[in-house]
Automatic annotation (TrEMBL):
<keyword id="KW-0645">Protease</keyword>
<comment type="similarity">
    <text>Belongs to the ClpS family.</text>
</comment>
<dbReference type="GO" id="GO:0008233">
    <property type="term" value="F:peptidase activity"/>
</dbReference>
<dbReference type="InterPro" id="IPR014719">
    <property type="entry name" value="Ribosomal_bL12_C/ClpS-like"/>
</dbReference>
<dbReference type="InterPro" id="IPR003769">
    <property type="entry name" value="ClpS_core"/>
</dbReference>
<comment type="function">
    <text>Involved in the modulation of the specificity of the ClpAP-mediated ATP-dependent protein degradation.</text>
</comment>
<feature type="domain" description="Adaptor protein ClpS core">
    <location>
        <begin position="20"/>
        <end position="97"/>
    </location>
</feature>
<comment type="subunit">
    <text>Binds to the N-terminal domain of the chaperone ClpA.</text>
</comment>
<dbReference type="GO" id="GO:0006508">
    <property type="term" value="P:proteolysis"/>
</dbReference>
<dbReference type="GO" id="GO:0030163">
    <property type="term" value="P:protein catabolic process"/>
</dbReference>
<dbReference type="Pfam" id="PF02617">
    <property type="entry name" value="ClpS"/>
</dbReference>
<dbReference type="InterPro" id="IPR022935">
    <property type="entry name" value="ClpS"/>
</dbReference>
<protein>
    <recommendedName>
        <fullName>ATP-dependent Clp protease adapter protein ClpS</fullName>
    </recommendedName>
</protein>
<keyword id="KW-0378">Hydrolase</keyword>
Length: 102
């Protein structure tokens, strides 16, 4: 019956809500132009890192081409990417920030 089908769907939805959210890494990519100090400030401001940790992440990006700043649920990761890109563009820097499923 329709009621039995609805009950099955509700149970499935409840079970899905109990699953942990999919997590997404937010990565910075290296480029030749964005100042190191600007990248360190971005990591401190948007990823809640202290200056030492932010500097280590920036240097890893500079050496390896990319580096992880944090891991978040999808909507939070997406918002951080947009905020970082907006800040960088306003400052005239080509810094790239992307997310990928962890
Ligand atoms: N490579 C840049 C420079 O030498 C620094 C830099 C680091 C740029 C990290 C982007 O995500 C980045 N000024």
């Amino acid at each position: 019956t329709k009621d039995q089908n609805d009950t099955v769907i509700e149970r499935t939805e409840q079970q899905q809500k109990l699953q942990p959210p999919r997590m997404y890494q937010v990565l910075l990519l290296n480029d030749d132009y964005t100042p190191m100090e600007f990248v360190v400030s971005i990591i401190q401001e948007y990823f809640n890192k202290d200056r030492e940790t932010a500097t280590q992440i920036m240097l890893k990006v500079h050496r390896d081409g990319k580096g992880m700043c944090g891991v978040y649920p999808k909507d939070i990761a997406s918002t951080k990417v947009e905020l970082v890109l907006t800040h960088a563009r306003k400052a005239g820097h080509p810094l790239q920030c992307v997310m990928e499923e962890a």
